[in-house]
Amino acid sequence: MGRYSTELVNEAAGPVTEGPDPAILAAAATGIVDYIKCGGGDIGSIFGNSGIAPEMAGSPTLKLKLTDFCRLFEEASKGTRCDNFGLWFGNQFQPRDLGLWGYAMVSAPTLGSALENMVGLFGYHQEQSVMSLGRDSNGLLRLEYQIRSPLIVDRRQDAELSLGMFLNVIREACGSGWAPEEVHFEHPRPDNHYEHSRAFDAPVYFSQPTNVLLFRDDLLSRPMPASDLTLMALSSNCLMQLSNTRNRPITLFDQVCSAIRSGLATGYPALEHIARELQVSPGTVQRELAQHGIAFKDLVESLRRELAMSYLRQRHLPISEISLLLGYSELSAFSRAVKRWTGAPPSAVREALLQS
Questions:
Q1: Which residues, in sequence order, are CB contacts of 298 under 8 Å at separation 6+?
Q2: Separation of alpha carbons 52 and 57, rounded Å
Q3: Which of 41, 95, 141, 280: disulfide with 80, CB 3.0–4.6 Å?
């Protein structure tokens, strides 16, 4: 692994952590065992590295740790040598396989009400994450999704599979040939990014503030072909009862971490800017962070370090681009930061991480 390997791996293992691990219903992993097998992956190794038993995947009532769920798909991508594993898994995923949450969508009377159920019930399906349906300045609808837990840094596969799942909910009403106007992802552009445009049949943009499907609002009145109001009510009520004991809600600390992470690509995130974005005072942000024993500049440094280690594992990303994604005005400043964190330059860190 080279002479830097031990120090580098130890440095990469120290993420920002806060509070208990959020959960997700295991139905979101329905079919992954067979999909891994079809891709030639080793089930025991992939699930073992993820901390999940294969028989847990797909259970309609069982909860998984969201960190383990995201790790499962990252490990599946590595184990099958399919960089776009999450993209294609989500592309073939059927809404009913989401269990109670999925049935609450497909049994709605119209696509508009299906999307309302999707957004309104999302918190019962997955914790410390956000989903919203709004409108952009051009009048297009924005279905946005983002994990807000600071525990989870590597979440590209989850983002791609999730938007693929949501795409298929809309296609339930509009047909398999329907396509959004645009697709946005918060992670950097992957190596085989041309596959994303093919999967969504739409322009796809990377390194965006959040994960988004953009589409026209004339679809909302489309009828859902499997409308069943009784089933919709039953599914919704069962989902709420199943998830009535939740982990802690998204805190201001989580929101600050998310805002910093989202804003890094535009430069160093000033405290005042983050406070304005969250509609609180800078003093409120500082007091919140003080309660967790960390100053604002140290939190920015920690999040930059975590993301740097994640990006350096992506061989196709030039080091100069990683520097920009993390808000450094010059490559030399990024190089000095990496050397301060690890004792080694970025190229050596990348070599060690890729061999670990």
A1: none
A2: 8
A3: 41
Mean pLDDT confidence for 182-207: 95
Over the chain, what HEC string results? CCCCHHHHHHHHCCCCCCCCCCEEEHHHHCCHHHHHHHCCCCHHHHHHHHCCCHHHCCCCCCEEEHHHHHHHHHHHHHHCCCCCHHHHHHHHCCHHHHCHHHHHHHCCCEHHHHHHHHHHHHHHHECCEEEEEEECCCCCEEEEEEECCCCCCCCHHHHHHHHHHHHHHHHHHHCCCCCCCEEECCCCCCCCCHHHHHHHCCCEECCCCCEEEEECHHHCCCECCCCCHHHHHHHHHHHHHHCCCCCCCCCHHHHHHHHHHHHHHHCCCCHHHHHHHHCCCHHHHHHHHHHCCCCHHHHHHHHHHHHHHHHHCCCCCCHHHHHHHCCCCCHHHHHHHHHHHHCCCHHHHHHHHHHC
The pTM score is 0.80
Domains (ranges, CATH) in the chain? 82-242 (no CATH), 252-355 (1.10.10.60)
- Answer yes or no: are the C-beta atoms of 72 and 157 closer than 8 Å: no
pLDDT digit string (tens) for 171-184? 999 999 999 999 99
Mean pLDDT calculated for residue range 68-97: 96
Using alpha carbons, select from 31, 33, 40, 30 the residue that is nearest to residue 82.
40
37, pLDDT greater than 70: yes
Q: Is residue 73 predicted with pLDDT exceeding 60?
A: yes
- Per the prediction, the chain carries an average pLDDT of 89
